[in-house]
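Work Package 3 (structural annotation) set out to generate three-dimensional models for the target panel prioritized at the project kickoff. During this period the team completed the workflow that converts sequence records into discrete structure tokens, so that structures can be stored uniformly alongside our sequence database. As a representative example, we reproduce one entry of 206 residues exactly as it appears in the project archive.
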Amino acid sequence: MTNSGFPVLGVLLAGGQGRRMGYVDKGLMTLGGRPLLAHAVERARPQVSTLILNAAGDPDRFAAFGLPVVADVVEGYAGPLAGVLTGLEWAAVHRPEVAWVATFATDAPFLPPDLVARLMAATGDADMASAMSAGRTHPVFGLWPVAERGALRRALIDEEIRKVDRWTARYTVAQVDFPCDPLDPFFNVNTPDDLATAERLLNAAP
């Protein structure tokens, strides 16, 4: 169980191509002497009942993290929605008691420790929930109902929808605002300069 009282599958989305980092595995780059992915795992794991890693390629490169590594269930690079669908369908098969899937970006080392609890609390009158900060939405940090896996598969395959916002526009989505003091918890590392900034921010992270 999570601190929300419900079983939730957590999915770390590592399906990005890392173009601005020279096509490397961003999660394996070092921040504060540890892989970037290790920071995301440390913050996400206590919030969910089960945690998996969504990534393509040889899963052995992530063996040190001790997580199930699950490739996209949709062929080709279909973006974060493919990772969401992968989590929903994995939960339906492997964790049938789970009704919700939480997704996290693996290049965000400061993600909030209460992310899932706050998203879950916001779903009372909504179909799903996602995070926002500083007036910007962060749909990759979302809470998704397993029951919508069929609808998402049809949107991805039949309609070729790739943008998260285009699919979620069909639903009532609770936007949960997170404070940016002392730093934006959704700061993500896309470039070498971002990595240097993250190093400076590391000591300020709550």
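The beta strands are 8-13, 30-31, 34-35, 50-54, 69-70, 100-105, 128-133, 136-145, 173-177.
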